[in-house]
Structures are given as C-alpha cells and as structure tokens.
C-alpha cells in the first residue's frame, strides 16, 4: 500500500528516540508526541522501525497537503505514523527474517496490552471466497512477503 506522506525511521534506544527522515533529517523535536508514544509502546526494547508519517482524513485517505500544513503549523497531534516494518530489535538484525514475521513481531510490540479491534467481515465473506477462486494475474512479483529482505545498495536507483 502506498501512503502519501514522509518516510521515517524510528530509532529507539531506551530514553533516546530519534525520528529520522529519508533525507537523514532529525524530526524528533518536531514530532514530540509521536516520539513519546513510541517510547511508551516499546518500553525497554531497542528497535529500528520503518514507517510513514501521514495525515489521514475522515475517509481514511492520506493527503500530502494537510500533512505539510500540520508540520508547518507545528500541529504534530494531527499526524499518524504507520509503522510497517521492524528492522532491528534488541541487538538483532531482523532483515534476514521474512517480512510477514517481522510485521507480526511489530504488531505484537505495538498492540501488547491493548484491545484488538475487529472489523465485521460476515457481509463480505461470499465476495472473498469468489476472489480467492479467481485466477491470479500473470504479472510477476518483485518480492515476496515470505522472503527475507535483501540489503539495499547505496548506488541503487531510487524507486520513488
């Protein structure tokens, strides 16, 4: 899923939390409430979390303009951090693990002690069964969620 926002790495080492942009700018002070929230959720764990900082409208869609406006007006409480990958945890590089395993571990850390919300799915069950029987498209996938994440090269072209 593509979000319309800013990519951030959250580095958590005890009380030292850093929110770093793709351009290596430290946004920790700009996003104080986010840093505090991550510290509370991760506790004593040391972690490197990959995610996207976004502004979400009433329909659940992300928009870049309101994100920039909230940042310019110093209103970080209007923003959401979608954490989508756990790259490092408590001294262990997790990139060799399958992506789905890292996502499950990330969800456990973020949701521990919190009730899990469940969306009603009964009304869509028949549609899901039909979709599951439909033939897959003939396109090939560049990566698999069950495969390890290969290391990136500094000289690799940007993919946008």
TrEMBL record:
Biological processes, Gene Ontology terms: DNA recombination; DNA repair
Q: Where is the composition biased (Low complexity)?
A: 133-160
GO MF entries: ATP binding; DNA ligase (ATP) activity
Specify the species.
Nannocystis pusilla
Q: Which domain of life is it from?
A: Bacteria
Q: What is this protein called?
A: ATP-dependent DNA ligase family profile domain-containing protein
Q: Where is the composition biased (Basic residues)?
A: 117-132
The segments labelled Disordered in the record are 117-160
């Amino acid at each position: 899923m593509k979000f319309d926002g800013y990519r951030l790495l959250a580095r958590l080492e005890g009380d030292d939390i850093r929110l770093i942009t793709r351009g290596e700018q430290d946004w920790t002070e700009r996003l104080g409430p986010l840093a505090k929230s991550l510290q509370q959720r991760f506790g004593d764990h040391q972690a490197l979390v990959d995610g996207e900082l976004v502004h979400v409208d009433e329909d659940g869609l992300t928009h870049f303009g309101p994100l920039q406006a909230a940042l310019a007006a110093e209103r970080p409480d209007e923003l959401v951090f979608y954490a989508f990958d756990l790259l490092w945890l408590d001294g262990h590089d997790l990139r060799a693990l399958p992506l789905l395993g890292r996502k499950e571990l990330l969800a456990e850390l973020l949701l521990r002690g919190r009730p899990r919300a469940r969306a009603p799915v009964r009304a869509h069950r028949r549609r899901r069964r039909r979709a599951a029987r439909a033939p897959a498209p003939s396109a090939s996938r560049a990566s698999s969620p069950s495969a390890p994440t290969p290391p990136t090269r500094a000289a690799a072209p940007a993919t946008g």
